[in-house]
Write a structure and sequence with these properties.
By secondary structure, this protein is an alpha+beta fold. It has 2 domains: about 90 residues, Arc Repressor Mutant, subunit A (Orthogonal Bundle), CATH 1.10.10; about 80 residues, Alpha-Beta Plaits (2-Layer Sandwich). Helix content is about 45%, strand content about 15%. It has a 4-stranded antiparallel beta sheet. A 3-stranded antiparallel beta sheet has the order 1-3-2.
């Protein structure tokens, strides 16, 4: 998790993830005293006065915590963007919610990941191992994992988060067969 941040509530998470999904939000001018209320009503589709007030308060808090920024454009409108710390926190949220998508039909290929990460990156290696296990991969050996479904996008994201050079330390490949296939199929419910 980003240093110094504690996930206080789901409203922070929801707000940051919506801003991240949109890329940026462009809105009317900052001059209105109800600027944040307008954002809460218009972009976040809050209906009640109570929810609008809570979302507006959360936006102000996120700005003070330097998680989001309001940038005035030349036409007088304002865009809301994630600041560096906000992007870091969003990556953490995405890491928590990551799953491997199961296709409707298995293509009968096994996806393997083999890695040899240097000792000076032990924390990153341990974090990767924990996350691979949470994603449901089958561990054949300490640094050899297998899964029946495609997970390259998830692996690339993990390597980015943990700052692991994928090209240098990892091998990813597919095979149609694997030893102990019965046991491994049973693990995946195939």
């Amino acid at each position: 998790m980003a240093k110094g941040f504690v996930i206080k509530d789901n409203l922070t998470k929801d707000t940051l993830l919506k801003i991240a999904a949109m890329g940026m939000i462009s809105l009317a001018a900052l001059t209105s005293p109800y600027f944040l209320h307008t954002i809460a009503r218009g972009y976040f589709k809050e209906k009640t006065k109570e929810l609008i007030r809570k979302r507006a308060k959360k936006l102000r808090e996120l700005q003070k915590r330097k998680l989001i920024e309001f940038q005035e454009k030349s036409d007088g409108s304002v865009k809301i963007v994630l600041a560096h710390l906000g992007k870091t926190l969003v990556r953490q949220y995405q890491l928590e919610n990551m799953t491997i998508t199961k296709p409707q039909r298995w293509d009968k290929n096994w996806r393997w990941i083999i890695y040899d990460i240097p000792a000076n990156q032990k924390k990153a290696c341990d974090a990767l191992r924990i996350k691979l296990k949470k994603l449901g991969l089958y561990q054949l050996q300490k640094s050899i994992w297998v899964h029946p479904y495609e997970f390259m996008a998830e692996l690339e994201f993990l390597c980015g988060v943990f700052e692991i050079n994928m090209d240098k330390y990892m091998y990813y490949f597919k095979t149609p067969a694997i030893s102990n296939e019965k046991e491994i199929k049973k693990f995946f419910g195939l």
